[in-house]
């Protein structure tokens, strides 16, 4: 077996009797493997070791820069002697457009793989003083990810991104008459499969015509007025909070995606102006409903109109959102009178410490065919200090879920995510397991929230087992190093 690059380097690095520099005698490909394990700045510094080392770092196929002066990046790109498969430039902290423009065209010429550019933005947010950055044509790159900190961006009017498969634009302020739609359509991006645009502004009209796109994700595009997507092989479409910023304007969309399998639409929707086509292959639908709010809440009307056009679907993901203070609002779940015929139900419960009993009971009662139930007890948008509702809160009203029976005859599997064991959660789970006792339930999986102490987890495991039947398989999961693993619960 031949030694690895590290073993060969270690062997050659041992001092020889004559003081010979054995490390420099290694072949270029071995030295490159060694330098790839160093920060790029340190790899460049090895050029001062000897004449032999001057050109070695220029053979690196990957370069990573952070808090680097523009001329340093430009010089490194000029000295690069091989095509780059990866280029990372991060920590720019609100750099002006002209400083990025000094090296970006050089990157476009030598990059054959992935570009990641992260600009943390200036403390004051977007600024006209930073100028406008023109994105040149990367004709050989396969992936481009730009987080520009609301720096203004324009796209070069010509050129073909011939090999680009993924494009991600985050915190971009699109400048002037934006031609993003034309740039990402098939004539200029013939291989593009994944397009993501998030937290951006200035994109009022986006028109895409692509023969290759499989996923389009659009989130928080403030100012979007019209969306057109013609994509015959698109499989997944995500549109979140793009039209809802300006509720005085009717959303306008014309979308033709005959192969669409997954739709996540958490935005304004009006069937008279938002045309989604037949969607005959749709398998998964995701949307958001506000449990409490003013009468005629626009987001809820959009949600109900969207779900009404889908009669049968495999999976429904429904985000149930609570305001932090609910006593000043109306309970709106009774506006939801019908759901699609589903087999898998995923509830994302942004309840902020309130009880989810009433709203979840309402939904389960309308979903008798559900075979798999996922309940995500998410509190990611709620401060931990506000995670419990005040005394006398109305969140468990109407209280019929505490006494009425519920038939879940088809239910086979229940999964609870982000469980922290609050009183409200325990009361509801005990009721849920009571409803499920008469069913053919086979498995219950509970994943605890990362912040739950191990001593608490042990007590909760014992308690939850008393809620269930012995023949039901019950698994518990915890997070170790941010990875979900099976928890060995003592019986």
Outline type: globular
Give the number of DSSP strands. Answer: 24
In percent, how helical is the residue content?
10-25%
How would you characterize the largest beta sheet? Answer: 18 strands, mixed
Q: What structural category arises from helix and sheet content?
A: alpha/beta
C-alpha termini separation = 48 Å
Radius of gyration: 28 Å
Q: How much beta, percentage-wise?
A: 25-35%
The number of helical elements comes to 11
Mean of pLDDT: 86
User: Which residue ranges are poorly predicted, with pLDDT under 50 across at least 5 consecutive positions?
Assistant: 1-16, 381-386
Quick tags:
4-stranded parallel sheet; disordered N terminus; globular; single chain; 491 residues; 29% strand; alpha/beta; 18-stranded mixed sheet
What can you see in these coordinates?
It is a single chain. 20% of the residues lie in helices and 29% in strands. By secondary structure, it is α/β, with parallel strands linked by helices. Helix 1 (5-13) packs across helix 2. The radius of gyration is 28 Å and the shape is globular.
Structural topology:
Layout: H1 5-13, H2 28-35, H3 40-45, E1 62-66, H4 70-79, E2 84-90, H5 97-101, H6 104-110, E3 111-118, E4 132-135, E5 143-155, E6 166-174, H7 180-184, E7 194-201, E8 205-209, E9 215-222, E10 226-230, E11 236-240, E12 252-256, E13 262-266, E14 274-275, E15 284-290, E16 292-293, H8 298-308, E17 315-321, E18 330-331, E19 344-350, H9 357-365, E20 372-376, E21 413-419, H10 423-436, E22 443-448, H11 454-467, E23 473-480, E24 483-486
Parallel strand pairs: 1-2, 2-3, 3-5, 4-5, 5-6, 6-7, 7-9, 8-10, 9-11, 10-12, 11-13, 12-14, 13-15, 15-17, 17-19, 19-20, 20-21, 21-22, 22-23
Antiparallel strand pairs: 16-18, 23-24
Helix pairs in contact: 1-2
